[in-house]
Amino acid sequence: MSQGQTGAELRLVTPGMAIGPVAGKRIGSGAIAENDTIIATRLGWTKEFNNTVSVDPINSAYMPRSGDLIVAVVAEVRNNLWFMNINGPFQGLLPMSLAPWKVEFGAARQHMGIGDVVLARVQEVDECHNVVLTMKGVGLRRLNQGTIVNVPINHIDRLRGEGNATVQRLRDAADSRIIIGENGRVWIDGDAEGTAWAREAVALTQASGHKTTFEAELSALEQNAPKKGDA
Amino acid sequence: MGGYGDVQLLRDDGLRLDGRKLDEMRPVTIEAGVLPAADGSAMVTHGLNVAVAAVYGPMEAHPRKIQRQDRAVIDVRYNMAPFSTSDRIRPGYNRRSREISKVTAEALESVVLVERYPRSKIRVEIEILAAEAGTRCAGITAAAVALADAGIPMRDLIVGVASGKVEDTVVLDLDKAEDNYGQADLPVGILPNTGEIAFLQMDGDLSPDEYNLAMEYNFKAAAEIHEIMVDALKRRYEGGEN
């Protein structure tokens, strides 16, 4: 996160706090300009990169973007579409034409009902924040088993690690399938022992993923990981 | 706001009954992130008042008729717990809680960047656990900290603070006796960084000079409370980038 930081110290700011003069700088996310002063609009860490000042929020809602892989839950069913809870401010819409099955008009309920969980991709987000999802694509499907863990949006990169290294390590150690949705939902599928360990590891990554002690803590936890072929 | 009878609210030495100076605030403490299930939360103690605020969302606004196509709606519910005062309060919405919920929502709408989340809803729940005059101000302060804790974008924080008049003297931050038997009460919501006023109510009468002095007290107290709010938010995430 501190990569690209140009001189300015990483600073925790609260809404309304002055970050500094505009002075030719561009305003990024989490900040606004008022009377030639850059004002923080969120609780977070200030960041300056490529002459753009922004605030990395400590906590934020999921804002869908086209192409995001997400774990969504069916919230409403109509004759020809599903409204999906995407863990954000807006519901996503999955039309029957973008479902992986051939769905007849009026038969949407036969394929998915309220509460069903799917792995989907954000197809489109328009300027009015209408979100269209798709399940046409490799690996996109209904998730019939496994468990879901919610993590804050800003912890997702930490959970993935550099080049997905951390999540791959968790997959190997837990001998489970783990998929991280961009919307803060993590799907874990394995045996009971592996799932329990993975949940613990996700919690540890959230709590300590940014600390220098994380490597040691994760290694220690890996000692307790369920061994493959034990069962 | 009685303002009647011969209740003595100022001592002969010029101090108030609880020993405070005229421009002295009751002690304030704030803690952010007190409710793990909420997206953001805060607890404010202001004198003997205890207010807890929880923020959920932004989320899809239901029922759909309350949706606004160009902005989020802020749904505030202010409630006093039945055990918050010595006389048991009948549970449920009443005229007073409706009014305070409405003015609080309007005050918060002026600082939250609601245009970022069209068609959605931000739910703010304010629960008063203990009441001793000034609960709406404590509630607004708690709601502002909880909104910031939830990562909701805001132009500024908002501080709830009140002044009033007792025995023809302007005082800051009325306690229960002063509120009940005083002559005026002036609660305001102040944006501490810009000095703007997000809400203002007045009960009783104040002359222009008294009003100006009361507002001077309010701005001074708002600056103090703002520091405590910022400290509470920073304390929650102290120890580096979290």
Task: Please describe what this structure looks like.
The complex is a heterodimer of chains A (231) and B (242). Chain A is of the alpha+beta class. Chain A has three domains: 12-57, RNA polymerase II/Efflux pump adaptor protein, barrel-sandwich hybrid domain (OB fold (Dihydrolipoamide Acetyltransferase, E2P)), CATH 2.40.50; 69-143, OB fold (Dihydrolipoamide Acetyltransferase, E2P) (Beta Barrel), CATH 2.40.50; 147-223, K Homology domain, type 1 (Ribosomal Protein S8, Chain: A, domain 1, 2-Layer Sandwich). Chain A has five helices and 16 strands. Chain A has helices at residues 108-111, 156-160, 165-174, 192-208, 214-223, and strands at residues 12-13, 18-21, 26-27, 31-34, 37-40, 44-49, 52-57, 69-77, 81-85, 92-95, 117-125, 131-134, 141-143, 147-150, 177-180, 185-189. In chain A, strands 8-9-10-12-11 form a five-stranded mixed beta barrel. In chain A, strands 1-6-7-3 form a four-stranded mixed β-sheet, with no helix packed on it. In chain A, strands 2-5-4 form a three-stranded antiparallel β-sheet, with no helix packed on it. In chain A, strand 15 and strand 16 (185-189) form a beta hairpin. The two termini of chain A are 41 Å apart. Chain B is an alpha+beta fold and 242 residues long. Chain B has a single domain (28-236), classed as GHMP Kinase, N-terminal domain (Ribosomal Protein S5, domain 2, 2-Layer Sandwich). Helix content of chain B is 27%, strand content 28%. Chain B has four helices and ten strands; from the N terminus they run E-E-E-E-H-E-H-E-E-H-E-E-E-H. Chain B has helices at 95-109, 135-149, 176-181, 208-236; strands at 28-32, 40-46, 49-60, 73-80, 120-130, 159-166, 169-172, 184-190, 197-200, 203-204. In chain B, the strands form two sheets. Chain B has a five-stranded mixed β-sheet. In chain B, strands 6, 7, 8, 9 and 10 form a five-stranded antiparallel β-sheet that branches. In chain B, strand 4, helix 1 and strand 5 form a beta-alpha-beta unit. Chain B is globular. The interface between A and B is medium-sized, with 32 and 36 residues.
